[in-house]
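tl;dr need the bound structure. longer version: we got a ligand (2'-deoxycytidine-5'-monophosphate) that a collaborator sent over and nobodys looked at where it sits. i said id run it. heres the input, straight from their email, havent touched it
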Amino acid sequence: MKIAIDGPAGAGKSTIAKLLASELGFVYLDTGAMYRAVALKMLNEKIELADVASVEKTLEKTSVEIRYDNGTQKILLDGEDVSDIIREHAVSKAASDFSALPCVRLKMVELQRALAEKRDTILDGRDIGTFVLPNAEFKFFLTASVDERAKRRFTELKNKGAECVLEDIKRDIEQRDYNDSHREFAPLKKADDAITVDTTSMSIKEVAEHMLALVRKKEA
Ligand code: DC
């Protein structure tokens, strides 16, 4: 079985996907991490977004691998574990930019489909229900107001001891929402047959229980 969870940045997709995966005994695949790893490579190699020929050449000599360490996803870029560094602010922005390129997406989508093929998998991303796995048994579209998503990111960063300004985070989220939903190829979009879950006034537990109930109802 495949479960697709799409939605904008900060809607709670990864937290919920991890919870559901552990409840259902599924593998969790964070597809955003793959785009982040590619973006990190482009930043390291100082490749410009507009120079698509160089992006393509660099992609040919880029390896992105997923490993599971006690159930936790680790992402390897050219053999090196980059799971932490890809969360940095500059990488978030670059991931949104480089992921708009069809050559980047096609390489990652091939990998995502191959990984999902092997086991029951929950994937989170932007285009899972519309493009990567249009036949997924379950499709969810998780969303929340931009203010709420900015507040969540702000609290998360503060808890990690980072210096941050709520207004800046909100602006970044709005920019990423715009980028991700306005690109030409496989943009962020709710699949026609996806179930929308607006998490603005819901706790993580409420969201997880609601989604689990829907999955179990159909399974029964
Ligand atoms: O989910 P995330 O914030 O880690 O994703 C980082 C960026 O990668 C996001 O701004 C858009 C892109 N992305 C995508 O285009 N398609 C996906 N399936 C997952 C992420």
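gonna send this back to them w/ a short note. The pocket of 2'-deoxycytidine-5'-monophosphate is lined by residues 9, 31-32, 35-36, 95-96, 99, 125-128, 176, 180 (CB under 6 Å).
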